[in-house]
Write the structure tokens for this entry.
Amino acid sequence: MNRRTILERAAPIAAAILFAAMPVTAQPDPPGPPAASAGATIQTQADAQPASPATSAPPAAAEFMARGEYLVNILGCNDCHTPMAMGPDGPAPDMTRMLSGHPEGLELAFPEPMPTMPWAMVGSATNTAFAGPWGISFATNLTPEEVTGMGIWTEDMFVKALRKGRHMGVSRPIMPPMPWPAYGQMTDDDLRAVFAFLKSIPPIRNRVPAYLPPPGAEESFTEAQ
Ligand code: HEC
């Protein structure tokens, strides 16, 4: 069974369940980001304050980074990409493992039996693994770690991944429940700010298990990952 057949079978079911109201076509790019002018601002401020310590970020860059942090917080990236652990107030993202994805070593297979309609999805206690008609998806490592995280990702890959819903921007479809159809509607500036913030967080080495296609479709996406 080829990749497209799998996609045609599994993705529409998943999409219908989870993203019925969301547009799935790529959004037209909003007016371009003020990248050049932001650079110019930084230059001007650096020129105006030659005595400021080299380590403190210029205000424009600091604001950009703060915007990225704010977006990551309000968009709930930690809810799925940071493992939940039981705390004094119930389950909460374990911020010592911030955005490092589904824990390495917590191998999960399809629940037996899978739920039947109208139930469709099973989530792990960590809220980082999700089994449904699309297979099992594991929230990825969003830290800048070189081998297991997004260390080698470029901004362009990140923007494409969230706009087009493709692994690394070009490869297999990104499965539910990753809300890329919603996030893909962010402005270029906001997507860039999110990426800049993700690049600045502590790298955590954590190899997330590979996506598992639905039973009977084992050969599907695995070679494309
Ligand atoms: C509801 C849960 C959920 C939320 C919220 C969520 N994600 Fe995800 N994300 C996932 C899952 C699950 C995957 C893995 C999907 C797969 O393997 O196909 C994923 C995959 C990704 C990928 C693709 C990585 C790759 O290898 O191509 C990126 C990038 C990403 N998420 C970024 C984010 C960012 C940034 C946020 C917040 C703005 C976020 N996610 C919020 C569940 C979520």
Observations:
- The radius of gyration is 19 Å.
- The chain has a mean pLDDT of 82.
- Residues 72, 75-77, 79-81, 130, 137-140, 142, 161, 167-168, 174-175, 177-179, 183, 194, 211 surround heme C (CB under 6 Å).
- The CA atoms of residues 144 and 199 lie 5 Å apart.
